[in-house]
Specification:
The longest helix has 20 residues. This protein is 40% helix and 18% strand. The protein has 21 helices and 21 strands. It has 4 domains: 266 residues, 3-Layer(aba) Sandwich (Rossmann fold); 101 residues, no CATH class; 135 residues, no CATH class; 73 residues. The chain starts with 13 loop residues before the first helix and ends in an 8-residue tail after the last helix. The relative contact order is 0.09. The chain is an alpha/beta fold and 631 residues long. Strands 7-14-15-3-16-17 form a 6-stranded mixed sheet, sandwiched between helices. The chain has a 5-stranded antiparallel sheet with strand order 2-1-4-5-6, covered by helices on one side.
Length: 631
Amino acid sequence: MEAGGVYRGNWNTEKNIKRGLNLGLEEVDDRFEKTLADINKMNSNRVFDNYITKLAFPFFKNFTFHSEINFQFPLTILTGKNGSGKSSALHALYGSPKGKNISDYWFSSQLDPIEDFGGEVRERHCFFYEYYYNGENSSVLYQRNHHKNRNSMEYWETSRPRAKYRMNTNQKRSNPIEKELVYIDFRKELSAFDKFFYFGNIDHLKSNSKQDYLRLKSVELKNVIDSGEIHEIRGCPQNESSIQLTEPEIMAIGSILQENYKDIKLIDHKLFQGWGTSVIWSKDGFTYSEAHAGSGEIAVVILVHKVLNAQPKSLILLDEPEVSLHPGAQKLLLLFLLEQVKTKKHQVIMSTHSPAFAEGMPKEAIKRFIRNPDTNKIDILDECFPSEAFKYLGLSSKYDNAKIHVEDELAQKIIFSVIKNNSDRFDNLNVFFTPGGASYMKQNYILHYAHEDNNKNFVLFDGDQSYDGSIVDLNTLTVKDFHNKDYLKEQIKSFTGQEINFVKDGGNGKSRDDQIIEAQKKYINYYKSCVKFLPKTTPEEIIWDENYVSEILLIKDKTSFKEVMEESDYKIKILKTAMVLTGNDNPSSIRFIEDMLIKKWIETNDESQVEIKEILLGFMKIINNQEMVMG
């Protein structure tokens, strides 16, 4: 650890500088996955102390009452469309540590008054958070109060835990968390040059243009940077001392932006009228200021400088850090933040519109903010797969076009209904069936899917295709069995119930046993991970509802009721029900009864539906690379 809290860590040698500037996608992904694994291990061992574990909004702004965010991973991503409340959540977090107040960002005015909830609710705006410190869990409640005799209308006070807010009332009133705070709103991080050039006023200046004024004042700025002096006008300082960025800071910035910087300086000044920050970069052979830099360069410099100088276990809040950064730089910025979380045990929470920050992150780290069309309030989905973040933001991604292959039309309708009823979770999944039956699928389609090995093809058989026992674990086989195609063939037959023929690809009529063995292994691993089975024996049995059908049949035709109920074959049960209710047993009548039963089944949400949702959730984990598929 350097003076001022700068950690050199992974960013400290000339070798690493060059490595950081030449990272390939594979190396970035490897470092990303390793860092995630290390953080997960640290998290399970409760290494992250003085850590906010939950933020709750019993009655707060336009959030659905009693919304909450659980911080299960030390880097959290708040994603959602414009106006979905992400920044409001960050402002509540900003006001959480001791000495901070949410009213710095949310305050009442004549145009935008903050009013208490009316009607039946009649509650003040409030929020609370829970935190973990020294082995103990504490909670802190903040309520907005009105004090006409106070200098500020914006007064938020702590209070004891309240049962009506769904707090643990057995806990005593706790002090706010004491934690260094770093808050950066990237939409507002304008350089001194940009502030004047785009928003400055020269009406009272002698200069004929903004360009002339900047030329004049740039001479003064260069002088104070070179001399290190504080320039004053009538005793008022016009600048602060310039800051020479350290080697680790320069290296981190260069790694994120993939640029070979030799030197970077920061200086806060008011030489361009209002206070602002100027940045001076040096590369091979030339030096330039923020006037000729991209806004993404400026944002990364400010972020890296603040993060590397933050004390360990800081709370770091980032509002839209993707501004002016291309997706590749966003990925490298995320890697930098994760490595800082690992090294200095920070808690980082960012709001973003960019799915690039969500890619590869665990679902527990991603929170999705959604405007509920029925209530017009903001709902928070506390766990969100990266694929869901892409889909909700209307972007195509590598997660698209995941397919579930089923045996028949009824199975397709059942799975489609579950997906539709849980579209916020399973919208990335598509379901289809092909004629030919289970045996044909095992010999042809599964053989093809296993060879493709793309984690986006799944098979969901009827329950009568399930097998007793377990599929062999290739990692536990002896060397002899591992390379024995006859042994592997028998293993495949044991769980498929049939012999699977693997095509030989050999020249001059020669058998390529090595290719067959490799294909057999892929088949086994694919079947183990990506082939599942519907609950019960057939799709008809899943949707059949004895009580529901009984009520209808007893009203329609008491004579036929007993005949339908005594039938043991669920397919025939549905056929006979169609005959009673429609007077016909043709395919359209049968589909009508199936659709009626599916609708009722969706409403009941029975055990079989819960089991199917668990299967679909497992597929989503594989699509998002959060469950290993051995190839």
